[in-house]
Amino acid sequence: MATAAHKTAPAYLAAYLRELAAVGNRSPHTIRNYRNDIGDFLAWCEQAPVEPLMVTRQQFRAYLAGLRERGIVAPSITRRTSTVHGFYRYLLREGATERDLLYGVALPKRPKRLPKVLELPVVESLLAAPDLTTPQGLRDRAMLELLYGGGLRISELVGLDVTHVSLGDGAAIVLGKGSKERVVLFGRPAIEAVEAYLRHGRGLLSSGPEPALFLNRFGKRLTARSVQTSIKQHALAAGILQDVHPHLLRHSFATHLLDGGAGLRTVQDLLGHTSPNTTQIYTHVSQARQAKVSDEAWTKIAEDALGAGRRKAAGA
């Protein structure tokens, strides 16, 4: 068995990824990103050349500067920095290094990007788009109502089983991030849409004992990609020019709640955020929207006043 001193950085990377997959409950997509990000840094070390297990903070900063020169955007650089940081903390735990070699290298500041939202009339147009005379249309209407009315993530939506939903309570148990169960609440429109789908749509799609709430035409559980495609088709049919995706409905749900006077803690609980900092971004969106409405209102008042003044002058 190789000792820590004889293992190479790529060997440690392979072991690190196995640990993340087995213990860290990371998704295959996340593992792939980790492999690519850390692998890119190790490739840079080989070309520099720099020994990865003896890298200095100055050398790592040179790597980050090279990313900026390659045109890598700031959010991606921040993600890569965090990923490589995690790898070096793992190396320290494994005894491959005597200290955290990257300790003290700050994460690049990520520019704040406010999430986009759909205006309420646009949401209403999207919800009305499915053809309710077909089982697929009933299904899609129920999905849209849950995504918007319950603030579900797409993974939570497709993971729903029939037994997870209580229409009498307007609630459902979903599996959120980190495989944590949470209860989502939804109102009368979503209750009625899901009820209509269960009564008149799901049975026509079902082909056997499939527990999933939302079924495809083969009677199997819908995939996230299928939901995304369906939503884009309905948005196109409704004449919506904005790029519509499932998470946009979640953003809209949160923002519309704050617009309506809901408290931050309430929205945090409904979204299943563990930290209020994650939810805080929606307060900025709501404030920006309110400021825009105020500006537009004052502009209209000014234009009306100016127009009245001109008409009065012309009459004189």
Sequence-ordered SSE layout with sheet pairings:
Layout: H1 9-22, H2 28-47, H3 57-69, H4 74-93, H5 120-127, H6 135-149, H7 154-158, E1 165-166, E2 171-175, E3 181-185, H8 188-200, H9 202-205, H10 224-237, H11 246-259, H12 264-271, H13 276-315
Distance between the termini: 100 Å
- Main sheet attributes: strand count, strand direction, barrel closure: 3 strands, antiparallel
CATH topology-level fold name of one domain:
hpI Integrase, Chain A
Categorize the overall geometry: elongated
- Beta-strand content bin: under 5%
Short descriptors:
single chain, 316 residues, mainly alpha, DNA polymerase, domain 1, hpI Integrase, Chain A, 13 helices, 3 strands, elongated, disordered N terminus
Structure notes:
Strands 1-2-3 form a 3-stranded antiparallel beta sheet. By secondary structure, it is mainly α. Residues 1-5 and 288-303 have low confidence and may be disordered. Strand 2 and strand 3 form a beta hairpin. It is elongated, with a radius of gyration of 26 Å. Among the domains are: 9-93, DNA polymerase, domain 1, CATH 1.10.150; 120-242, hpI Integrase, Chain A. Helix 2 (28-47) crosses helix 4 (74-93), helix 6 (135-149) runs antiparallel to helix 8 (188-200) and helix 11 (246-259) packs across helix 13 (276-315). 59% of the residues lie in helices and 4% in strands. The longest helix is centred in the last third of the chain and has 40 residues, at 276-315.
